Amino acid sequence: MKTLEYKGYQARIDFDGEDKIFVGHIAGIRAIVGFHGESVAELEAAFIDAVDDYLEHCAEKGITPQRPFSGKVMLRIPPELHAEIAMKAEASGKSLNQWAAETLSHAQ
Asked: pLDDT tens, 53-79?
């Protein structure tokens, strides 16, 4: 599935079968910023407006807008587990980062 993206923000989209509209929220931020549209074009325009409105609101209030997740994760794990998964990654011909990303993607 392709996602909407604008200024580094992405959208989570659902379809409301009762109202026959697409409903979206800016993903990866704590603030709840929603938007909707009856067509893909309306949805895209509403998403862009929602991001711009969020950024303007933050600027007006003097607060730093939350940025979407960077993709960087710091984990603290026992040294024994670190060694074990590093060996598994090496045995599969992957870096520890590649192996962990692949393994975590299967847990979804």
From this structure: 999 999 999 999 998 777 778 889 999
Say which DSSP state 39 is in.
Answer: S
Record the tokens describing residue 57, joined without a space: 């609101």
Numbers of helices and strands, H then E, in the chain = 3, 4
Cα 80-83-87 angle, rounded to 5 deg: 140
Distance CA 90, CA 53 (A): 47
Cα distances (Å, whole numbers) of residue 37 to 11, 45, 78, 100 = 13, 8, 48, 37
**Which whole-number Å values give the CA distances from 52 to 5, 29, 35, 55, in the listed order?**
12, 14, 12, 5
